[in-house]
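Budget justification aside, the reviewers requested a transparent look at the raw inputs and outputs of the sequence design task funded under Objective 1. We therefore reproduce one unedited record. The lines immediately below are the C-alpha cells for a 687-residue chain.
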C-alpha cells in the first residue's frame, strides 16, 4: 500500500461530500461542452485550406449555390399561374342595384338612359373580372403574366392585362360615358359610380400554393453526392468553386443532422459517460495512491477546479470560433499541482484534463500529443522550485517542446515544409507568454487555498528573516541547534524522497518558541541554570510551554500552517523525561501526574514531521556524549529512534521501517562527520 494511504479513512460524511463535488463538476463540464457540433472551419473561395486533411465521415449531397437555385426557381416560376375564384353574385348584386335605380328614375328619360348604359358597361366589366389592387400589385411584382380564373369546375387562363382593378374599371367606365353632353356630366356627379365597382376575383391561396409546390418539386437542390471516406480537401489546397460548394454543403448537413432534439440528447448522454469515466479513474487514482488529498477539502476542491476550468475555456473558444485552443495555457495546471502537491498527481490530473478537452475537437490526436508532452516538460522542469525565475525557464521549455512536437506531427502527415500551418506556431508562442502569468497566480492560490510553495519556503528559510535573525541574537544555542537539525533532516529527506525544502524550513522554526525564555534551555546556558530554583513540575511546564509560545510567534508573523505543524509535532505527545524521572526519583512513594510532564502534541502525521522529530531528538542527545566514537554515536542513534518507534510516535504518519533504517544510517554518517576528531598540529622546535 502507498505510504500516503496509511491510516487515511474517510467517514460517510466525507464520502458524500466528495461524491457531490464530483457530480457537480461533471454537470458543469457536460453542460458547457458543445453539442450543436458547430462547423468550425473558416474558408474563402480561391484561398488555401488552412486545416489538416478533411475526409467525409458520412454520405451527403452537394447542394447547389443559392444563386443557381434562385435562377432555376425563376425559370420554373414563369409557368406559375395563380388561381382566382370568380364570385358572380357580386356583379349580379351591383347590376340589380342599378336596375332599382333605373326604376326609381323612370320619370327622367335622360337619367334612365344614362343608367342603362352604365349597367351594360358594368355587366361587361364584371364578366371579364375585377381583381383587388393588392393582388394585382403582388402579381406584377412576381412577374406573373397569366392567372387562372375558375368558377365551379371550369377554369380558364387569362392574361393579367385583360383583368380590371377597381381603378382601371372606374377609368374604363368613365371613358365610355363622359364627354357626350353636359347633362351626363351632371349625372356623373349625381351618382357615385365607385359604389358599384367591387372586386369579384378573390385569390385562392390553397390552390395557388399547391400549384407552386408541384412546379418546384421538379427542382433539384443538389448536383451530386459525396461518399463517406472520400477526401474533400487537404491542407494547402486552393478552395475552388466545386470544393466551396462541397464545404458549404457539409456545413448545412452538420446543422441538419444535429438540430434534432434526440441527437442532442444522445450526444449529451455520451458526454456524461465519457467525462464520468475519466472522473472515476481520477478519483480511483487518489483513492489508491493519494488518499491524504481526499481527506483535505481544500485540496480536493483545488484538484477539481483544474479539470473543470480548462474544458470550459476550450468549449468557449470552440463555440464562438475564437482563435485556436492552442492559445490556452494548459500546462499551467500541472505547474500549480506540481508546486503545491506532487509530480504524479500533476501528471494524472493533467492527462485527465486534456482528455476531457479533446472531446470538443474534431482532430484531437495532435492536440493530445502536444499538450501531454508540454505537461510532462512542465512537471520535469519544476522538480524543485526554489526561485520564481524558474517559471520563466519552464515557460520557455514548454513553448519549445510544443513547437517541436507539433512540427513533428505536421511533417509526418504533410512531408513538406511549405504546407506547415505557421499560424499555429504563433498561437503556441502566445501560449508560452500566457504561462508567465503563473507567477502572480501562484501567490493568489497560496492565499486562497492556504498552500505553501517552495518559493515561499525558500524565502522563509533565509537566515536574515526577522524571526530567525532574532533567534540567532537572543538564543544563539537554539539557532545553532536548529541549523544542525535542518541539515540532518534535509539529508534524510533527500535519501527517502521527502520534501527537503519543506523540512529544512520547518526545522529552522520548530524551536522558535524558545526565544521568549532562552536561558531555560541547555543549549543557551553558560554557567547559571535557572531550573535549580524551580520544582520539576515548574521546569517541565517552562520547557513544554516553548511549543505554545512558538505557535503564538508563528501566528504573529503569519507563518504558513505547514510550519506551525512542525512546531506542534516535533515533540509529539512525548514527555520531558529528565524532569519526569527526577520527580519520580525524588518522590518514590508518591504518585506523579504524568500529564504535567507531557507535550500537547499531536504526534507527527506527515513523513516530514516524523523525520524532523527524529533529527531533533538525535541532535540534542548527541551533545550529551562524552566520547564521540563511532560505536557511541551508532548506539545513541539506534536508542533514540527505536525508543520513538516503540512509544508509537510514528503510527499516524506515512513512514516505513525502511525509511527509518535509512534515516538512522544518515544520522550516524552525518554525526560522525560533525564530531570527528581533529589531529594536533606539531609545534616548530627552536634551536
Amino acid at each position: 500500500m502507498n505510504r500516503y494511504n496509511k491510516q487515511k479513512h474517510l467517514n460517510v460524511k466525507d464520502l458524500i461530500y466528495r461524491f457531490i463535488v464530483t457530480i457537480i463538476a461533471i454537470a458543469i463540464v457536460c453542460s458547457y461542452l458543445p453539442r450543436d457540433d458547430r462547423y468550425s472551419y473558416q474558408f474563402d473561395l480561391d484561398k488555401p485550406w488552412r486545416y489538416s486533411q478533411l475526409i467525409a465521415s458520412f454520405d451527403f449531397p452537394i447542394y447547389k449555390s443559392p444563386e443557381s437555385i434562385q435562377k432555376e426557381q425563376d425559370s420554373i416560376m414563369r409557368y406559375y399561374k395563380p388561381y382566382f375564384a370568380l364570385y358572380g353574385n357580386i356583379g349580379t348584386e351591383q347590376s340589380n342595384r342599378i336596375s332599382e335605380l333605373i326604376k326609381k328614375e323612370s320619370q327622367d328619360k335622360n337619367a334612365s338612359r344614362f343608367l342603362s348604359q352604365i349597367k351594360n358597361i358594368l355587366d361587361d366589366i364584371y364578366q371579364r373580372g375585377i381583381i383587388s389592387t393588392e393582388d394585382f400589385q403582388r402579381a406584377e411584382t412576381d412577374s406573373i403574366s397569366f392567372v387562372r380564373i375558375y368558377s365551379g369546375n371550369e377554369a380558364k387562363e387569362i392574361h393579367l392585362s385583360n383583368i380590371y382593378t377597381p381603378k382601371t374599371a372606374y377609368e374604363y367606365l368613365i371613358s365610355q360615358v363622359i364627354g357626350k353632353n353636359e347633362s351626363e356630366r351632371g349625372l356623373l356627379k349625381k351618382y357615385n359610380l365607385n359604389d358599384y365597382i367591387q372586386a369579384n376575383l378573390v385569390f385562392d391561396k390553397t390552390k395557388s400554393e399547391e400549384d407552386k409546390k408541384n412546379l418546384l418539386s421538379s427542382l433539384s437542390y443538389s448536383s451530386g453526392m459525396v461518399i463517406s471516406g472520400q477526401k474533400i480537401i487537404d491542407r494547402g489546397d486552393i478552395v475552388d468553386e466545386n470544393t466551396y460548394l462541397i464545404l458549404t454543403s457539409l456545413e448545412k448537413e452538420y446543422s441538419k443532422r444535429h438540430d434534432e432534439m434526440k441527437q442532442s440528447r444522445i450526444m449529451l448522454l455520451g458526454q456524461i459517460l465519457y467525462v464520468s469515466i475519466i472522473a472515476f479513474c481520477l478519483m480511483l487514482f487518489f483513492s489508491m495512491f493519494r488518499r491524504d488529498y481526499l481527506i483535505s477539502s481544500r485540496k480536493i476542491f483545488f484538484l477539481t477546479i483544474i479539470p473543470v476550468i480548462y474544458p470550459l475555456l476550450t468549449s468557449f473558444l470552440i463555440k464562438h470560433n475564437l482563435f485556436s485552443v492552442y492559445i490556452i495555457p494548459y500546462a499551467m495546471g500541472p505547474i500549480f499541482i506540481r508546486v503545491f502537491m506532487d509530480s504524479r498527481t500533476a501528471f494524472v490530473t493533467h492527462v485527465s484534463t486534456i482528455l476531457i478537452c479533446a472531446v470538443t475537437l474534431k482532430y484531437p490526436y495532435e492536440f493530445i500529443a502536444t499538450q501531454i508532452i508540454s505537461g510532462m516538460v512542465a512537471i520535469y522542469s519544476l522538480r524543485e522550485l526554489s526561485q520564481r525565475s524558474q517559471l520563466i525557464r519552464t515557460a520557455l521549455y514548454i513553448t519549445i517542446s510544443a513547437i517541436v512536437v507539433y512540427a513533428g506531427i505536421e511533417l509526418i502527415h504533410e512531408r513538406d515544409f511549405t504546407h506547415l500551418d505557421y499560424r499555429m506556431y504563433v498561437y503556441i508562442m502566445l501560449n508560452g507568454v500566457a504561462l508567465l502569468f503563473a507567477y502572480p497566480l501562484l501567490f493568489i492560490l497560496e492565499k486562497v487555498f492556504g498552500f505553501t510553495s517552495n518559493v515561499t519556503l525558500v524565502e522563509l528559510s533565509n537566515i536574515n528573516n526577522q524571526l530567525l535573525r532574532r533567534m540567532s541574537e537572543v538564543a544563539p544555542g537554539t539557532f545553532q541547534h536548529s541549523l544542525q537539525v535542518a541539515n540532518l533532516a534535509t539529508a534524510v529527506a533527500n535519501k527517502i524522497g521527502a520534501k527537503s525544502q519543506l523540512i529544512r524550513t520547518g526545522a529552522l522554526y520548530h524551536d522558535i518558541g524558545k526565544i521568549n525564555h532562552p536561558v531555560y534551555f541547555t543549549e543557551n546556558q553558560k554557567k547559571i541554570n535557572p531550573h535549580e530554583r524551580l520544582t520539576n513540575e515548574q521546569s517541565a511546564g517552562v520547557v513544554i510551554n516553548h511549543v505554545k509560545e512558538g505557535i503564538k510567534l508563528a501566528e504573529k508573523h503569519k507563518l504558513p500552517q505547514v510550519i506551525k505543524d512542525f512546531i506542534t509535532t516535533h515533540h509529539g505527545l512525548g514527555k520531558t523525561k529528565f524532569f519526569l524521572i527526577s520527580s519520580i526519583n525524588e518522590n518514590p512513594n508518591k504518585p506523579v501526574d504524568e500529564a504535567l510532564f507531557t507535550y500537547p502534541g499531536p504526534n507527527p502525521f506527515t513523513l516530514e514531521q516524523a523525520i524532523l522529530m527524529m533529527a531533533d531528538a538525535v541532535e540534542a542527545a548527541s551533545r550529551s556524549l562524552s566520547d564521540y566514537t563511532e560505536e557511541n554515536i551508532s548506539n545513541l542513534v539506534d536508542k533514540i529512534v527505536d525508543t520513538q518507534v516503540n512509544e508509537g510516535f510514528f503510527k499516524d504518519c506515512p513512514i516505513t521501517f525502511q525509511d527509518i533504517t535509512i534515516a538512522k544510517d544518515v544520522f550516524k554518517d552525518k554525526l560522525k562527520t560533525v564530531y570527528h576528531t581533529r589531529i594536533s598540529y606539531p609545534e616548530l622546535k627552536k634551536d
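The two ends are 74 Å apart (CA to CA). DSSP finds 28 helices and eight strands in the chain. Computational costs for records of this kind are itemized in the attached budget.
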